[in-house]
Amino acid sequence: MDQLAPVTPAPPLAGDTTADVVIVGAGFTGLWSAYYLKQQQPQLDVVVLEAHTAGYGASGRNGGWVIGELAGEDRLLAGLEPARRDACLAQLRDIPAEVGRVVASEGLDCDFRHGGVLYCAARYPEQEARLRQQLAHWHAHGHGTQDFAWLEVAALQQQLRLAQPYGAVFSPHVATIQPAKLVRALRRRVQELGVRLYEHSPVRTIRRYEALTARGRVRARWVVAALEAYSGSQAGVCSQQIAVQSMIIATEPLPQALWDQIGLEHGQAFSEWSRLVSYGQRSRDNRLVFGARGGYRFQGRLRTPFVLTPAEVALRHKLMLELFPMLAQVRITHGWGGNLGVARGFAPQVVVDAANGVLSAGGYGGEGVGASNLAGRTLAALICGTPDECLQIPWQTTPDKLRRWEPEPLRWLGYNGIMRSFDWEDRVLNDRHSASWKRRLAQQLARRMDGLLQ
Ligand SMILES: Cc1cc2nc3c(=O)[nH]c(=O)nc-3n(C[C@H](O)[C@H](O)[C@H](O)COP(=O)(O)OP(=O)(O)OC[C@H]3O[C@@H](n4cnc5c(N)ncnc54)[C@H](O)[C@@H]3O)c2cc1C
């Protein structure tokens, strides 16, 4: 959040060129792919084409959680035999540590802290029951208390002091970063490694062995589409994702006296266990960064530029104060949002079209900061033919096997119907005067609607 020094953009592509690999999009997926390609084969000629400047998309403007999981991983790993499943889970849980290893070895300045996460039952009692169910599920699926552990209220309060706590699950498998700093550090590092970056170079067409801009083309053995929410511009290559919006606010830097009241001393991330998740972290410059909710626009239209309305800030501020009433007098100094990609069934994918030399990855469903690191490693290993452990994870697919989203207006109606049911559940449960029949009805409806998203 500290003001970052302006970056001089890399020059745009001017004319035709060739490379071994051309990557389209300089978010985390594109930058991690470039980084691991150069690690695995330093002599590879890698070009990155970015429509704006690196980090313009979700990667430069997210909540900074580096999560050691993949959205929808239960379904993804369900059919595997136990030994392979355990190996895949170990790979996923290791993502924050892998990011930490690169951050340390490359000296990337990005406020990395591996403080774990507190998933909190924090606004109404039903959250405790749902969280305990989730914990039982984790434990029944091969995780131990070292992975996910229940904290009673007194234990939670030693780490985080919420207005109305019911308990929490602590997991060590989340780290936090300052996303814009990580993008910049990676951008600089891949350039040092010899990657040719062209900014302000929007790609109009991706096709067999080439990426075309208005001012030139790059021909390459491999084309990597690293566009997540922006994939709609390349229908046919990676159109399996829809763009949804997510929004965040941040306070002014808080004095130590307030942090003494709140906690979060060791870089822990936190979230509140409702279906419409609220989450956050304490930034390195001592602000509370708080993300909550988002939206979907008809036909998956992107929202850009993204300036929050006063009502959007006010909603998030209200939710924040429900958890942290001690912040009532504190100023909200920042609010921002971004577009992220969601694949049908919340199934992030690495898509391999070997015949045309086109690869893509994305659809991380709001969990792309860590997943993009895994995607970068996977794409690099596929291109270089490196026998990397990460290739065991069964998220590779081919374009013909992609699960498509429903056509409009079904998609818009469905998405907003589901979100409304979640919102209604949240409001009913958060009102302690709601009758018990209404509480049950709201939960049943939301549960059913949740099932439709899977
Ligand atoms: C507000 C918000 C909060 C989030 N919080 C978290 C979090 O805490 N933890 C987490 O794990 N995930 C989070 N996410 C999701 C995560 O940020 C994304 O999944 C991840 O950054 C996606 O990275 P990417 O590189 O695939 O895509 P992006 O970062 O979106 O990068 C795509 C790039 O492609 C460029 N581009 C677009 N079109 C073209 C074109 N035609 N030619 C060339 N370039 C093009 C864009 O400018 C952009 O730079 C959040 C997202 C948002 C929006």
At a glance:
The protein is α/β, with parallel strands linked by helices.
Question: What would your notes on this structure say?
Answer:
Helix 1 packs parallel to helix 10 (368-384), helix 4 crosses helix 10 (368-384) and helix 11 packs antiparallel against helix 12. The strands form 3 sheets. Strands 1, 2, 8, 9, 10, 11, 17, 18 and 19 form a 9-stranded mixed β-sheet that branches. The chain has 3 domains: 17-106 and 178-239 and 345-401, FAD/NAD(P)-binding domain (3-Layer(bba) Sandwich); 117-177 and 244-340, D-Amino Acid Oxidase, Chain A, domain 2 (2-Layer Sandwich), CATH 3.30.9.10; 408-454. Helices cover 34% and strands 23% of the residues. It has 12 helices and 19 strands. It starts with 16 loop residues before the first strand and ends with a helix. By secondary structure, it is of the alpha/beta class. A hairpin with a 5-residue loop joins strand 13 and strand 14 (278-282). It is globular, with a radius of gyration of 22 Å. The structure holds flavin-adenine dinucleotide. Flavin-adenine dinucleotide (FAD) binds next to helix 1, strand 3, strand 12, strand 16 and helix 10.
Rg calculated over all Cα atoms: 22 Å
CATH superfamily of the largest domain: FAD/NAD(P)-binding domain
Span between termini? 35 Å
Strand fraction = 15-25%
Number of domains: 3
Shape: globular
**How would a textbook summarize the main sheet?**
9 strands, mixed
What's the number of helices?
12
Number of strands: 19
Determine the structural class based on helices, strands and strand pairing: alpha/beta
Which ligands accompany this protein? flavin-adenine dinucleotide
Question: What CATH first level of the largest domain would be assigned?
Answer: Alpha Beta
Fraction of helical residues: 25-40%
Unreliable runs: none
Mean pLDDT: 95
- State the CATH topology of the largest domain: FAD/NAD(P)-binding domain
CATH architect. name of the largest domain:
3-Layer(bba) Sandwich
